Amino acid sequence: AAHLERLLSEGEPAEDGREGRLGPSTVVLDHTTGFEGLLFVDDDLLGVIGHSNFSSIRATTCVFKGKWIYEVLISSQGLMQIGWCTLDCRFNQEEGVGDTPDSYAYDGNRVRKWNVTTTNYGKSWAAGDIVSCLIDLDEGTITFYLNGQSLGIAFSNIKMGPGIAYFPAISLSFKESVAFNFGSRPLRYPFQYQLSDPPTADLLKANRLLGYIKNVLSTTIDTQEGKLVEKDIGEWQLQGDPTVLVTLAHIFNYFAPLMCKVYLVEDVLMNFLLSILEGGGSVEEHPLIQQLLDLFWLLMEDYEVNECLKQLMMSLLRAYRFSPIIPDLGFQIHYLRLTTAILRHEKSRKYLLSNSLRRFLNGDTFDVLRSVVFFYIKTPLRVKEAGLEELIPTTWWPTRFDKEGKDERDPREESAEERLRRRAYERGCQRLKKRIEVVEELQIQILRLMLNSKDKGTGEASRYIFLNKFRKFLQENASNRGNPTVLCPPEYMVCFLHRLIAAVRSYWDEGKRKIPGTVPSEEAYVPPQLFYNGKVDYFDLQRLGGLLSHLKKTLKDDLASKANIIIDPAEIQATSMDDLDEDEESGAAQRPSGATAMGGALARPSWLSSPTLGRANRFLSTAAVSLMTPRRPLVPPEKVKVRTLTVEQRTEEDIEGSHGNDGLLLGRPPEESDHTITEKSLLEILDGIVMMYNLSVHQQLGKMVVVSDDVHEYAVALKDTEEKIARCPSKRPDILEELQKSQKVFAEKLNHLSRRLAWINAAIYSKEKMLDVYWLLRVCIRTIEHADATGSLFAFTPEFYLNVAMNSYSALKNYFSPSNCMEELPGYEDTLTQLAAILAKHFADPRIVGTDIKDSLMQALASYVCYPQSLRAVERIPEEQRVAMMRNLLAPYEQRPWAQTNWILVRLWRGCGFGYRYTRLPHLLKTKPEDANLPSLQKPCPSLLLQRHMAELLGQDKDMAASFLNSVLNQLNWAFSEFIGMIQEIQQAAERPERNFVDTRQLKVCATCFDLSVSLLRVLEMTVTLVPEIFLDWTRPSAELLLRRLAQLLNQVLNRVTAERNLFDRVVNLRLPGLESVDHYPILVAVTGILVRILVDGERQGVSRAAAVLLSDPCFQLHSIQHLLGESEPAVAGAPPAPSERKHFSLHAYTDYISTEEKRKVEQMLAFLTEESKQAAASAPTSEEDLCPICYAHPISAVFKPCSHKSCKACINQHLMNNKDCFFCKATITGVEDYRGASTLAAMQGA
């Protein structure tokens, strides 16, 4: 020992006596007086997150002479200003570093430098970059570096002199985060001017001691020769000569305390371990790291090993996250290989897992929020630096996609040059993908180590430690929406999800090979008992049937009869108690001793004091479930008290079960088979994967599509510019020059974006990632099917399963094309049909109570029937389900969100209606061709099969038909009246002399009311075409009334829209943004379709009835029908003639959309109505006494009983829908007779 001390003391360096610095030698952020705004600061006082509009903070140490540098690790790429400031700088919520005279900053978000004024400077930064800030107080300059590369001098002649000293400082906006390195750790890009002095003496000692350790490990004693012999250090074994171990123990007495210091772990130990792996080969070929870790656990105190491992993993994580991207991803692979080697050591792995999920701000543990970074592959923003130009030398981009996501061009139309470019680009993308796959495979290896369920030699298996931490991780992300300090960034979550799916599926299929009767991962699902037996914590997430406490009260009998679970009344009471502390104490008292994790039971995190989280946890820790075991029919069932354990208390036995205990699958319903699915721990991880997708993965997948959209936009712009260059006259070289500049800019941008897109397609939208999302979709479908089979217990299913089923399908359809195609997925058509069956059944499922989830189901079904493939899937579901779906769609519109239902019916009709085959609004093609490609107008794909079901239902069920059509007519009356009211307000605002702006929200509501009116008219057209007898067969009780109401509404619409120089015309001619869809064509063609059907296409008796009703309506005006064909209203005596240039609406102008046959029918209808109106005028009643005293429009045709008052049938039928008292005497009407003495007593039809 004395010899060792003497060796270590030799050549000790003198203390660094650098001048020019004031303040503590260990530099941290000043969290006491040096900040403005609201910030979260890590416990190490180096990491910071903004939590208000614009927060600022400075360091504890300042400099006044010499050169000094510090590094900032950029964790998020938003708005931040990083640099230097003096003590005199006063910041606020609007002004930060660089906004005051004596402060200087670089802002990589806006690519600018700031010192009161601002100019362009540097490059844009991204999450994972490192900014170095160098101040030279000898020359008076400030320079910034990005990932070690100088951005040039930013400021010169900065203020210097007596009393002037500069602090490192930052200002950052809400949710932005960084970590500082003032020199407490080795700088990622070393300079000799770091603010904190490096621990030179300790560094020298640590390096010497490490050298001694290497010497001992590479030496063996030849017992025969009695001398020391050199050997390969890689072959060293712990079970060697005792002399070697004693020697090492002496060295470790000095070495172990040094390995608790972060600087030495990163600079000495990590670099040594990395050097062991530099030789290449698999990690398993380097057993020395395992032997060294054994040595650490043997010769170091537990607290020393714990601290050393924690610092080592944090250093590795930082190194991985902030490594620059190079073409072969060499840095990332290097750090992941060492991480894998460390985690292969069982004792070290379990320590790290046990301490991997404390709160982010605790800072004293290696937490899962940070460790998820290991599964992330960052996307390069700067293509050149990432080496993508060398990897993908040739760029290419698709030009235009249709609504199904496919390239509209036929591959046969490609030129030879384009084909060569595309193939070269695809080869480059394939090279990039292979390199990314190497990193992904290492990440999956790390997860497989964490999911090892057989390593029980040193306590609980890794998988069960991971599982409990993983659940806690999900809880923090599910329960802290909006709190940036604990949320895992969505881009990390996407990568984590895919690696976790790969690891879980590999273990699942391994289990399948060992136990042949189990379910393969291809058919994986989550059994329904997980949702109601209390074994898995779903926090405060919504269930399909509402709140869990409510379900346990209302469905307790079903739980007892179907799942043998009896809810203790005390449990229901406990959920309503407000005293959290009592519950926690009782929970702690009941905690079983076997539930303690390695290193003792984990403390309850302080953040669980949040009211909502507290309730969820209290409920879980006090739940008492009594179980009846159905396996002993001859003996009265035993009641076994089982308490739902909090996440941190569960053991392997609680999860997997043993000896008749079903573990997580307790309470199997009779509908579920009793065969083994897989290991129960994998089922819970699978459940967590589905939850992860719902939390943020789907949202992130949608965000990343923006790069593909940008490529498309720039490709269109480039093509447009090239066409303009071709048309540019030779006399205008100035225009040609500008166009060529634009062409160059667009081409450069496309080259950059196409390489970025290659990376995103390889890392996020690859075929393998698509298969993962598809697998998740199928898992959700099977889970929902199994849960649905349990009847009322389906209400316990968490809402997120339905959300993920809908969202994952949407992602597959919209996000992964055109590089990958849904049709190529295995079992694609069957999956579409299964999902169609779920949407068809559950959009009106009474077991589902949440408004949001019901709306989502309705919207998903509406989207489903828009596209031919998914519509055919709906047609493939069993007939019974199709008919039930149509019955639900035809329920009366009152008391439910009817608009989506109506859109669904309209989409089933589009393509069959009169002039209803357009994919772009025809009137827009005449006025604004560039705006005509509206996203909501897909190619028509009507369903004749579902139309047939609708016809059968309405034809057979007279009551349903009457109530459905009355509700449609009511909604049409409301929607069109609202629309007319709103355009009156818009017109008044437009006519005022002062400058007025119509509220955009009002315009949007107005356009929506118009669209609703059109769609309701189309549903009426659909009904009158499929089931004309509802209106025209007057043996049906409500037919005449429905026909009169229909005629009344059609006349109102026609009169409002077709009158000369009317309100509708004036508003349409304003061409206001937001009202593009409002025009004559959509609404008039819909009305025409109904009129043609009842007046031209019907049987003679029906046609004559329809004509009589239409003409007898007091609002009927023949010129409204003439208007459809462009025939103007006859001039009124004394009125000024209409301007000759005035253009009328005419169906003749839309030859591309109205067929010749359709035009012929309109002409036939006009001729018929003209003749009929002449006859009606000739036979009009001469005496007012013969007219109905209510409407004065129709002749008297009904007598009320018993009071004998009279009216027309239309008035009395409409009145009796809502009221049974006589108009005149208020007597209760018991019957209605024909006025002409036909003595047919009509049974009263209530509404």
Provide key terms for this protein.
elongated; single chain; EC 2.3.2.27; B30.2/SPRY; 1247 residues; ubiquitin protein ligase activity; cytoplasm; alpha+beta; seven-stranded antiparallel sheet; E3 ubiquitin-protein ligase RNF123
Shape, principal axes of CA atoms: elongated
* Widest beta sheet: strand line-up: 2-5-15-8-9-10-11
Strand content: 5-15%
Q: Could you list the spans in which at least 5 consecutive residues all have pLDDT below 50?
A: 357-366, 401-409, 577-643, 929-936, 1130-1142, 1237-1247
Contiguous helical run count: 40
Radius of gyration computed on alpha carbons: 38 Å
Q: Number of DSSP strands?
A: 24
Helix proportion: 40-55%
The main sheet comes to: 7 strands, antiparallel
Structural class call reads alpha+beta
- What oligomeric state do the depicted chains represent? single chain
| Amino- and carboxy-terminal Cα gap | 102 Å
Mean of all residue-level pLDDT scores:
82
Question: Would you give an account of this structure?
Answer:
The protein is of the alpha+beta class and 1247 residues long. The protein is built from 40 helices and 24 strands. A 7-stranded antiparallel β-sheet has the order 2-5-15-8-9-10-11, with no helix packed on it. It has a 7-stranded antiparallel β-sheet with strand order 3-4-16-7-12-13-14, with no helix packed on it. Strand 12 and strand 13 form a beta hairpin. Helix 4 crosses helix 6 and helix 31 packs parallel to helix 34. The N and C termini lie far apart (102 Å). InterPro entries: B30.2/SPRY, B30.2/SPRY_sf, ConA-like_dom_sf, RNF123/RKP/RSPRY1, SPRY_dom, SPRY_RNF123, TPR_RNF123/RKP, Znf_RING. Keywords: Cytoplasm, Metal-binding, Methylation, Phosphoprotein, Transferase, Ubl conjugation, Ubl conjugation pathway, Zinc, Zinc-finger. GO terms for molecular function: ubiquitin protein ligase activity; zinc ion binding.
